[in-house]
Amino acid sequence: MRAAILRDDSGTLNIEDVTIDKPDRNEVLIKTVASGLCHSDLHFIDGSWSFLAMYPMLLGHEAAGVVQAIGEDVVGIQAGDHVITCLSMFCGYCERCLTGHSYICSERQQVQARQPGNQPRIIDNDGAEVNQFTGIGSFGEEMLVHQNGVVKISNDMPLDRAALVGCGVTTGVGAVFRSAEVKPGSTVAVVGCGGVGISTIQGAHLAGARQIIAVDLEQQKLDWATQLGATHTVNPNDGDPVAQVLELTSGGVDYSFEAIGLKQTAEQAYGMIRAGGLATIMGMIPPGVNLEIDGADLFLSAKRLQGSIMGSNNFKVDMPHLCDLYLGGRLKLDEMVSRTITLDEINDGFTAMKNGEVVRAVIDFGT
Ligand SMILES: [Zn+2]
Ligand SMILES: [Zn+2]
Predict the structure, then answer these.
(1) Which CATH code is given to the segment(s) 181-307?
(2) CA 20 to 30 Å from 327, out of 49, 64, 119, 186?
(3) pLDDT in tens, 217-254
(4) Catalytic residue flag (residue 101)
């Protein structure tokens, strides 16, 4: 199959022919129909997370497709099914999984890749193992994934929209409903209005927040945010974004969300909450970067600061529900796809993302 392979931190993906194996007992072979380009992929391409890279590497983790074949132990998924993949793969038997927190499964490595000594799922032309980012690797024409990273969805759901649910939408909407549990009538600020931030804004809208403040440096993104549920916008080019949010809310929001992954914006998100407020950090802050907050303020104002990964999802349940919200017209996904590209245009797609030109670029692999 053809796939976009990352071989170093030069910033470019190479389109190569690689060989993908047949499904093992618990695996699902999927024809990739659509894959979004996510900032988490970009972090590996631009080198900011390259210390975790395992070259050669097949990136891509926000995808939907059609099942081609299944292993003998796969249950609930059949050839021909339309599916979404999710990087929140779970073992199903660790303490985290058994207490309903499978998004932070402690045995994930058991399902992300085949265990050492076995034939790799994907090899390149030299016979070297190609590592699937997060156990998925959706920048290829096919995906071979453990069944605990795959969920069946309705055939009514367009697969190029379903792909977005695979990461960005679940992360943003899930942060609102599962991580922060935003209450109706509350006030919300979202720092960073790319795919995750826009999804957070939509989640806050669905949750009945009365004031939803979008914060971004790009006017285009603030316009998109307004179309998709933001009631107010703040551009840091116009002055300190924390001061602007405090002014708009008479002292701070009930909930803030950070969707960029920078020390500065994470600290700003914390600064935007009122006494008793909750700041949720979704961005991929690089390891070794420390946040600084005023300890006395945290204590005296009873503020809360939390991380949220992949929207604290239970994706086998959540993703079909999110598809239903789209099909019912309540979750807007068409508006989030700024650009549709081919696999060969993937490097241009990431350049557009870096330049802030898109909410989401989606690769259409054709049917
Ligand atoms: Zn992602
Ligand atoms: Zn587990």
Answers:
(1) 3.40.50.720
(2) 186
(3) 999 999 999 999 999 999 999 999 999 999 999 999 99
(4) no
